[in-house]
Recover the amino acids of this structure.
């Protein structure tokens, strides 16, 4: 069974440019999470979806970050415009309701 | 606020020895505690979890101990192997919200 798929794996952009990350969760997992991970730290939740509904986006900086999961499967996380401090690894995870979270490999973003 | 933290940022262990990674938590309402392993360039990988009403759970070469009295969690790895080298995160779950600690880097000395 395929795990959580994320793309791209690496992205380098200039500050003020937009960037988007894509995630395909494990088949059958209705819950999808986006996390931000800074070097040497644990992942921090940005947003959690139950099917297509964002049920927890309290930690998402809504002035520049947006996310969508239109059909309740794939999801996209966008940053516009990117700032230097956004350089980090963006992780996607999925789970069944109340189940264990399984993580993708992440997208390493570098903002110059 | 609630937080999860680790006592030791780096742990060096001789190959074949047992490893013990410790973690302190503060949210007594958490229902699950989880250990993840993260290798360089990869996402966190689930190792083992334990419900809050248990004090010990064993997996393959790993054991998690939960002491709710002192809000302490530990991961024991038996016969540590080079492939165990990674960063280990403890995490707590409360109403599907998982909060991660900082992480402990385990270095296995051949």
């Amino acid at each position: 069974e395929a795990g959580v798929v994320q793309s791209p794996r690496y992205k380098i952009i200039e500050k003020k440019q937009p960037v988007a990350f894509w995630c395909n969760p494990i088949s059958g997992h209705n819950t999808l999470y986006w996390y931000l991970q800074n070097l040497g730290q644990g992942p921090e939740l940005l947003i959690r979806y139950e099917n297509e509904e964002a049920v927890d986006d309290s930690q998402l900086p809504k002035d520049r970050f947006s996310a969508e999961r239109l059909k309740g499967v794939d999801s996209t996380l966008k940053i516009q415009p990117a700032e230097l401090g956004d350089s980090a690894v963006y992780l996607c995870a999925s789970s069944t309701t109340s189940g264990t979270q399984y993580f993708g490999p992440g997208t390493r973003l570098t903002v110059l | 606020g609630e937080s999860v933290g680790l006592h030791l940022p780096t742990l060096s262990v001789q190959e074949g020895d047992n490893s013990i990674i410790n973690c302190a938590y503060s949210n007594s309402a958490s229902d699950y505690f989880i250990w993840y392993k993260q290798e360089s360039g990869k996402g966190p990988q689930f190792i083992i979890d334990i419900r809050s009403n248990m004090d010990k759970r064993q997996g393959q070469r790993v054991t998690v101990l939960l002491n709710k009295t002192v809000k302490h969690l530990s991961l024991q790895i038996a016969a540590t192997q080079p492939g165990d080298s990674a960063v280990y995160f403890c995490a707590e779950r409360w109403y599907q919200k998982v909060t991660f600690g900082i992480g402990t880097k385990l270095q296995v000395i051949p």
In short: Chain B has a mean pLDDT of 90. The first strand of chain B starts at residue 4 and ends at 6.
